[in-house]
Specification:
By secondary structure, this protein is of the alpha/beta class.
């Protein structure tokens, strides 16, 4: 009887999809840790809308990004391929970076365009600006874009207001470069950006995009990579001082408020039951910022490291009537978003080697994942060292470990930059179901079962590394100050004259 019900459900599901292609809203937080949301156990975070998504949708416990820093993680999300293939390594892109996400890489937006989808991006791009804006979202399959083309700390911020009425941003951010611009498509609308009004502008833009597409009965893809909760935190009057968690909590609340506005728009336009809303984060928390830097919950370390806290993220899938409420312990990744969306939309996959797998079975049936492994590259991957770690089933083996500046200030000495690169032979192996905090490496002596598992892990690692062809490093192409976006390109002296 159960199999008949499941078959009937699939018939209804796929018939409804063919009659009206589903919409997609992809929400991507910044530097948000595994333990930062109320629905993941934080006692003082105020995230009612994300908690609503978790209560009414599917919450993941074993979901991974592909890099413990921003740009490479975003490249993998949008292409379904490890950052090493597209060349978004080592580290991140900067305002004057010469390179960017190669235009021959296929993004989710470019997968959906042939299916008649309207596409828009709003927020933090961080996949390159380049000469004449050649790497902007509008060059990568998005019809519209409103946002800052890189991280909002990549410009001087010590005189900018981050909280009302006139509380200045914490720290200096990056000095000696242009102030951060707000762009609409390929035009700078404001420089420096007004942080107090930024989230309202994003919310209005995204809501208008949804409303317009719904009126046209056109399927849509909205990609919202938020600046929240990256340093320096900011929040407008709707969230400032309203959380129990200080500036980090206020920034998180502002992001959550926008998610609430988007859900209200989906309901008002009558498309919420035909829309997959998917939420996750780009990498773990920047623990060096202490209480301003997020929380990795029970996981070890954070941003910049290949420990669980650096790359295991909260993730929620919400689709009323299609995804049943629950929790899944199946392994999944940002790599899997593109093939899943393509499958649900009936779109063709890019004719390249993909690292992602279709998650539809997990989403609509709470079934098993097609993903058996997750590999862990450091911020500076190289063919010389290869993978730092690999997870196979519930076991994770560390072949190399290293701390990071981003994860400093914690009591755990393995997390800080002073924990230098260390090779492990045999590798450190952990049972992540029994020990998600990676505190207790398993002893191989007298455990032939573990020794057999380790041999499997080594074989999988060898096969994966043999299949990996490193793309030309886009970040190693360097920077050119002349490429930094300036609203008054003929002005002098730069960068201080770039104001409008």
């Amino acid at each position: 009887m159960t199999s008949i019900r499941i078959a009937f459900f699939y018939i209804l599901f796929f018939c409804s999809c063919s009659a009206s292609p589903p919409n997609f809203v992809l929400l991507f937080a910044d530097d948000l840790g595994f333990g930062d949301l109320g629905c993941y156990g934080h006692p003082s975070s105020l995230t009612p809308n994300l908690d609503r998504l978790a209560a009414g949708g599917l919450r993941f416990t074993d979901f991974y990004c592909t890099s413990p820093v921003c740009s490479p993680s975003r490249a993998s999300l949008l292409t379904g391929r490890y950052q090493t293939r597209s060349g978004i390594y080592p580290g991140v892109l900067y305002p004057g970076s010469i390179g960017g996400l190669p235009l021959n890489e296929t993004t989710i937006a470019e997968v959906l365009k042939p299916q008649g989808y309207a596409t828009a991006a709003v927020g933090k791009w961080h996949l390159g600006f380049g000469s004449n804006g050649m790497f902007l979202p509008t060059k990568q399959g998005f019809d519209q874009y409103l946002g800052i083309p890189y991280s909002h700390d990549m410009g001087p911020c010590h005189n900018l207001t981050c909280f009302p009425p006139d509380v200045k941003c914490f720290g200096l951010c990056d000095v000696g470069t242009v102030t951060v611009p707000l762009m609409y498509n390929e035009v700078i609308k404001q420089q420096p950006v007004n942080f107090l009004d930024l989230e309202r502008a994003y919310s209005d833009f995204a809501s208008n995009f949804i409303t317009t597409a719904a009126k046209k009965k056109q399927p849509f893809f909205l990609y919202y990579p938020s600046h929240h909760t990256h340093y320096p935190q900011y929040a407008g009057p709707g969230a400032a001082g309203r959380s129990l968690r200080g500036t980090y909590g206020d920034a998180l609340l502002e992001f959550d408020n926008t998610i609430g506005n988007l859900l209200a728009t989906l309901e008002k336009t009558g498309v919420i039951n035909n829309t997959l809303v998917f939420f996750t984060s780009d990498n773990g928390p920047e623990l060096m910022r202490m209480s301003r830097g997020g929380n990795s919950g029970p996981l070890k370390c954070g941003k910049g490291t290949t420990y669980e806290g650096g790359m295991r993220e909260p993730a929620i899938a919400f689709w009323p009537g299609t995804i049943q409420p629950g929790v899944t312990h199946e392994m999944a990744s940002t790599l899997d978003v593109l093939p899943t969306i393509a499958s649900l939309a009936g779109a063709k996959l890019p004719q390249v080697l993909l690292d992602g797998v279709d998650m539809t079975e997990i989403l609509v049936k709470q079934g098993q994942s097609k993903r058996e492994t997750m590999v862990f590259y450091p911020t500076d991957p190289s063919e010389m060292y290869g993978l730092y770690a690999l997870r196979l089933g519930k076991y994770k083996a560390h072949f190399y470990t290293r701390g990071a500046t981003h994860s400093g200030t914690t009591p755990d000495k393995d997390c800080s930059v002073f924990a230098v690169l260390k090779a492990h032979d045999p590798p450190l192996i952990f049972d992540l179901e029994a020990d998600p905090s990676e505190n207790y490496p398993l002893v191989l002596v007298g455990r032939p079962d573990l020794q057999a598992t380790l041999e499997r892990i080594k074989k999988v690692k060898e096969q994966f590394e043999a299949s990996m062809v490193f793309g030309e490093s886009q970040i190693s192409k360097g920077t050119d100050p002349a490429l930094e976006p300036c609203c008054n390109p003929q002005c002098s002296p730069k960068p201080t004259c770039c104001h409008c």
